[in-house]
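User: Here's a protein and a ligand (pyridoxal-5'-phosphate). What would the complex look like?
Assistant: Let me lay out the input and then the predicted complex.
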Amino acid sequence: MIARIYFDHSATTPLDPRVLEAMLPYLDGAFGNPSSLHREGRIARDAVQTARAQVADLIGADPKEIIFTASGTESDNLALIGAVHAIGTPGHIVTTSIEHPAILQTCRHLASTGTKITYLPVNREGIVSTSSLLRALQQNVTLVSIMAANNVVGTLQPIEELAHLTKLHGALFHTDAVQAGGKVPLDVNRLQIDLLSLSAHKLHGPKGIGALYVRKGTGLEPIIFGGGQEGGLRSATENVAAIVGFGAAAAIAKTELAEEVSRLRELRDHIVEQLERRCPDVYIFGDREQRLPGHLSIGFCEHESEVAKVLTQLDSQGIAISAGSACNANHSGEPSHVLLAMGYDDERARGLIRISLGRFNTRDEVEHFVETLVSSARKLKFSSECPQQLASA
Ligand code: PLP
């Protein structure tokens, strides 16, 4: 009998026990305020600085370029609003139609105060074309914000090319790397990134702690005002235990990255191979190669409206997977904006099942999941053949 199986790591990840261990002293005896000058304060300050170096190391940054925030959402808000305010004019942001709401809603807010926003389209695989960015860059652009990995379909964007083009046109380049951080290699200098958002809970760290990488010399105004912590960019007493956890999670992710990428890719590809062989009506969303190693998004042809039944059946049998993103769950029943942007119709855009693997998943769990999903699909009589164009979508 297998215990519960958690395959929803794109929503959040369980805390790594090593991270918990690192955090515990800071939830107990080491309670100091990092701004205090006494011994308790110095201990807390040192811990925050160590974590800053660990997070910086994950993305090839200098520790001075890391600002701790309370979430990936806050990092995205600070990057976009902070950059526009620093420029001092409403400006022009170029982004994509498949971003997380943390970007889309921030752009909406900025649009209401006069910022021009251009949304780049994506192809059927969820990839932004460099030519569409090049066209957008012909106008005066302040900032380009393109996510490194999509949270719904797991597609990876050609960040290096996109950032390179952006820099050639003199604009700032921000990437929301909340899903990519710790899962694929990221080097801010090689990629020419100016601003990059991370969130600890996506890489086996605690919830409620994020970071924004800000390249040295990049103009940025704060969006939270107060005591001037984090170089004046993010006032508030630091959440020391969470920051320490983020640092530990980043260090572990960096050390184990290469091994995890190939292990998760192998497990994910095994699921694909089994489902394609045994469920003729399964189709895959997103690019098959350019995607997060542990991520798989599928649909059941002609049964898109029955996704909820599959998830409920699996949940009752001890398996947690999701329909689209966790954020979409707040708008359940609505088609995914990501799939609509990729050219799927309303029905198919409601029918996505997201399977996202993580550090503690095993081959046995994957085998058990495949058996359960196949038998659930059979019980629900999912047996129609897929039209050719969908099967290869
Ligand atoms: N950006 C992306 C791509 C995400 O997937 C998420 C969370 O799902 C966020 C931003 C928001 O991060 P947080 O949950 O830390 O606010």
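Summary: The chain has two domains: 5-13+257-391, 17-252.
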